Amino acid sequence: MSERFHDICLVVNGEELRERVDARTTLVDFLRETLSLTGSHVGCEHGICGACSVRVDGAVVRGCLMLAVQCDGTRVETIEWIAETDEILDLQRAFIERNALQCGYCTPGMLLSAQELLKKGGVPSRATIRIHLSGNYCRCTGYQAIVDAVEAVARERSGGRASE
Amino acid sequence: MKPAPFAYAKARSLDHAIDLLAQDEARILAGGQSLIATLNMRLSRPALLVDINGLDGLDEISRENGRLKIGALVRHVKAEGSTEIARFAPLIALAMPHIGHPAIRNRGTVGGSIAFADPAAELPACLLALAGEVEIAGPQGRRIVHADHFFKGLFETALAPHDVLASIRVPAATAATRVGFAEFARRLGDYAMVGLAACARVEGDTLADIRLVYFGVGSVAARARNAERSLAGGDVEGAVAALTADLHPSEDLQASAAVKAHLAGVLLRRVAKQLASPRIEGIAP
Fold first, then answer.
1. Interfacial B residues in 120-179 facing A (CB < 8 Å)
2. What is the pTM for the complete model shown?
3. Cβ contacts (< 8 Å) between B41 and chain A: which residues?
4. Would the ipTM clear 0.90, i.e. be above it?
5. N or C end of chain A: smaller count of CB under 10 Å?
6. What are B84-101's pLDDT values in tens digits?
7. Rounded to 5 degrees, what are φ and ψ at B103?
């Protein structure tokens, strides 16, 4: 069917939903405008800044570069859910302790990207952390404190081992 | 901004996709990492998006007749982690970390990057350097187009409006294959200011069949043939000097023409060293 409006069925933050979407609606606008999940932020709207990062079927993607209609049959997880499940409690604490955020606009995306790297296990080098976070802009911190926080959590999770 | 309205259809098969593309102003949606950005900025306004994600058989990496075949829907993240690509297309493995950022690589596809033919993108340059081919499925059946004849100009390829890029094929690397890759970008993962992808075959003490492909310096990735000839004679500085005849970079938002010309030489010296090394650690077999 070549139509503008489509019915989609997807799981968002553990809840099964049926919604009718306009094909032109991006995933992040769908989450924010239709579902009122405003933790995912809209920054550049062309894939540069990373503020709109969400997880689709376990992979971190740009919410502005995927259409809601493409998420039919997928499992979407936003920062609200990931924070609620305590998956990144240690990372959130480390960000606060080390002033790894100021205005907080980039933070949801930054946390998701950092968690994707940390889930691979081990203690990544600072260079590896910077490379993995290269797609997430922060205009407040200068990144140093963010790298500190991610590195500290990687050490904690690995029981205090040195970096790679 | 937000995209202008369009219709959307999910293709059930390659043939179905080709049928859907018969409609006016229809565009293929693969990874969407360039297309959706242009929709958001209203640089493109298709009437219909034909979503080919999930089509069977288009996301495989396989070897056949001395060639490595990479399906159009292979996502960058899969190519990045592929031992087949690391072993038989080490140039592509070298280029992968430079393509977008991790979240972009989680969605973006190899075929999409080739079909979009951005002049500053890595994969079109790699395909040219490897003397690869593109497999195209169209209303009249399948055809193979050599990379030398595929990239026509700025965002322009041999693909017709009703065609679907099905796969790319590159000659599988052997013990004699040498590759090199380097680029300058303001931030890792951004489009290159200048980049160089190179492939050659070692013959005794010298390099043969050298292909040096620059990207980010013109409307399309292009070979530096004068520099190739100098490098075949072992003259790296001569090759750097020859670039003035090969490249005519135009100024863009990132750098002046003079800066790009200078950086092209710096990249050539780096890549010449890589081509001279028998193995790149962790990449070649």
1. none
2. 0.95
3. 45-46
4. yes
5. N
6. 999 999 999 999 999 999
7. -70, -30
